[in-house]
Specification:
By secondary structure, the protein is an alpha+beta fold. The chain is 35% helix and 24% strand. It has an eight-stranded mixed beta sheet with strand order 6-10-11-18-17-16-15-14, sandwiched between helices. Helix 8 packs across helix 10.
Amino acid sequence: MNNDQIQEDLSEVLQVRRDKLAKLQEMGRDPFHQSRYDRTSDSMEIKNNFENFEGKVVKIAGRIMSKRIQGKAGFIDVQDHEGRIQCYVRLDRIGEEEYAIFSTYDLGDIIGLEGEVFKTKKEEISVKANEVVLLSKSLQILPEKYHGLKDQDLRYRQRYVDLIVNPEVKEAFVIRTKAIKALRNYLDTRGFLEVETPILNTIAGGANARPFITHHNTLDIPMYLRIANELYLKRLIVGGFDKVYEMGRMFRNEGMSIKHNPEYTAIELYQAYADYTDMMEITENVIAHMAEAATGSMKINYQGTEIDFTPPWKRMTMEDCVKEYTGVDFSTINTDEEALAVAKEKGIEITPGMRRGEVINSLFEEFGEDKLIQPTFITHHPVEVSPLAKRNVEDPRRTDRFEAFANKWELANAFSELNDPIDQKGRFMDQMRKKELGDDEACDMDEDFINALEVGLPPTGGLGIGMDRVMMLLTNSPSIRDVILFPTMKPIDSNQNKIEE
């Protein structure tokens, strides 16, 4: 059968459903006129407590997922938010007219059903219907679980269908909700205050990333979807809050991959009179707490590898990591020229204006990151790649910063916040120079933030955690799209029969 014939047959089936709806409407039985249905029970409640429900009349509601009609009786499986339950419908119980209408119902239709709980001869817990009401007519065809909706791309695009046909998908999002609740509880009980800061910004700041740009018509200025909420949260510490956090969407106009989505969830928190070591303690404890609350253990299995989040985590400086995996000792390399020679020798791309610290970071990203399977803190990043972090007192070329890694991925980024306004302005100027050299991820100058620092920021520790990557690990999900209900997708060409990415 060719594709045109398949499409023609499909159109005929869809038309049949519309014809059935029109017939019901002519009879005064328009399902879309139903406003509500008073349920008394759900499927799992009945099945898990049969001894309390046997012989009792219940009212359930859900979607018809299977249907087996044999003459004057039929079985259907009804799926609700908890699971499925079998229902038995007989002509002599609901009446000839109602049974005739019931017989026309399709898979995917949403019904309300009142009936008596019992067990069949095969010991299956079921509901014997006294009344069946059509609450919504499905005009599309649900794919079969084992024969349809296997295209992963289509599952992401039509998550609503994916959740119906593959209800186990919900489990990842249940775990996600449990983990987020645990995170909030951990911070709230330790005196942190949850706040909200702007998503639309006049300056793209707080991180090195390419922003999404929009335009404010009334003000006639460009505006940016936030790439981080860092600078606003630090303004609140200036204003007198001691502990604040915000969890929400961030936006970065960058590539998409199994661990990158342009719109993602992150949490940032700031604590006055604390430093990056305090943030380490929070990071390892809060992620371990999330893992235990969501999965029952601090040890998780991710794609066949056990990852142990039990504190304390391993700690390494970035230079030590580079030395371990490349043999290059940067304690003996002090000039940009020497560093660039090493970069060339190791096959690292040399960018305009590249300096010693950027070479260290590039070597780490190329040779170190993929060795970090178990949770590890990489500390003391070069100042050149840390424009918002406080310099290390013992070695001003380094900063008091760390990134947390697990499964080769960066999960968190934190530092002792730079609170010297003169140094911060110089770092912003350096970022502007990078931008002039073509680095479109470099930070913009934020004069108001400099003004806030001049008012006075106390010693502060700050932390950001990428929630979606943590959720991938906790749910054993191979792609970030598996833990985002509606991930960003390339639009479909309406003229194409096959969805392409």
